[in-house]
Amino acid sequence: MANAKKYTMDQLLQEHEEAAKKLITGDTVEGTVLSIKKHEILIDLGPQGVGLVPRREVSFARNLSEGDKVTTSVTDSEMEDGYVLLSLRKAVKDKGWDEVNAKLDNGEIVEVTPFDANRGGLLVEYEGIRGFMPVSQLSAEHYPRVGSADKDEILQRLNSLVGKPIKARILDANKKENKLIFSEKEAIKDGLAERFAELKIGDVVKGVVTGVVDFGVFVNVDGIEGLIHISEISWERVNNPSDYVKVGDTIEAKIIAIDKERLSLSMKQLVEDPWLSEVDGLKKGSKVEGTITRITPFGAFVQISPAVEALVHVSELGEGSDVDPEKIFTLNERKNFKVLDIDKEGRKISLSITK
């Protein structure tokens, strides 16, 4: 072969010495995968012997096959059995950071699987690098909407996501600070924008209840978060939203407002307002019987039918400014009253005590 490179004996010896030189801890070395077992991986290092990747790092080789070239780092240059102890972790991490930065630059969607959770979010791993997905970056489907005091339930909901693949985008990546942040919301935002565009006020939608809190109910409507405020749950007075729905229920609701991130929904507007029918028979001067439901400094509220609550103002209780409604009324007491005024537009009824 005319173009073959010719070596002197000294050059051949020098190359052999360099190839066979003793490895030291921290060296990066390339080899060929000999075998992949449950508890170890063996790697042919050529003149430098055979390397062993221990059991604890086998997970880093999930995409390797026998015969693959692989780069590793030396953690022990000479074990008792003659093997060189190797680590895939550093090599995988270095390669992983290159992959991470490419995905971040391109805004690509990736798949991550949480391996643990805390109240702040999910711990995930991608390309050998551990990262974090904050609670605030979860989709409406996965966001643990619970009362602020229910910290154990938040953790329980997040733990239910461990081991389940989640589509996400990389929000932030910093190799020097070993920081890698993911967002599920960013991964689905394009699809959500299309769905938002298809919705309009007045539409009736179906959704799954994802959270019940003191002020209302959170609903996942095909990936879009909706809120049913406590005042829109029922035409009757609602004290506890959990009396009406629970997490996991599928419900129907009417869209009453749309903003960039959330729908405002109403359950009560899907049924006729019973207040209107129940006040039909009432007129000014009518005598009614009712139950005291609330006592305030400015008067008392009276339930005169299942959907109708009226007010006895403090001015109707006697002369002077020192009248105390708590000395006149008792909670759950039933009394007779006279209707002073009916405001159907404002849904207000004023009462006075009958004498």
**Major sheet details:** 5 strands, mixed, barrel
Number of helices: 6
- The CATH architecture of the largest domain can be given as Beta Barrel
Name of the CATH superfamily of the largest domain: Nucleic acid-binding proteins
β content, as a range? 35-45%
- Poorly predicted regions are none
User: How far do the termini sit from each other?
Assistant: 124 Å
Helix content: 10-25%
Shape: elongated
Number of domains: 4
Return the average pLDDT rounded to an integer.
86
Main β-sheet, spatial strand arrangement: 1-2-3-5-4
Plain-language structure description:
The structure is a single chain. This protein has 355 residues and is an alpha+beta fold. The chain has four domains: 21-87, Beta Barrel (OB fold (Dihydrolipoamide Acetyltransferase, E2P)); 93-188, Nucleic acid-binding proteins (OB fold (Dihydrolipoamide Acetyltransferase, E2P), Beta Barrel), CATH 2.40.50.140; 199-270, Nucleic acid-binding proteins (OB fold (Dihydrolipoamide Acetyltransferase, E2P), Beta Barrel); 275-353, Beta Barrel (OB fold (Dihydrolipoamide Acetyltransferase, E2P)), CATH 2.40.50.140. Helices cover 17% and strands 39% of the residues. It has helices at 9-19, 89-106, 151-159, 184-198, 274-278, 325-328; strands at residues 28-36, 41-44, 50-53, 69-76, 84-87, 109-118, 121-126, 129-134, 166-174, 179-183, 204-213, 216-221, 224-229, 250-258, 262-266, 287-296, 299-305, 308-313, 334-343, 348-353. The strands form four sheets. It has a five-stranded mixed beta barrel with strand order 1-2-3-5-4. A five-stranded antiparallel β-sheet has the order 8-7-6-9-10, sandwiched between helices. The longest helix has 18 residues, at 89-106. It is elongated. The model has no long low-confidence stretch (mean pLDDT 86).
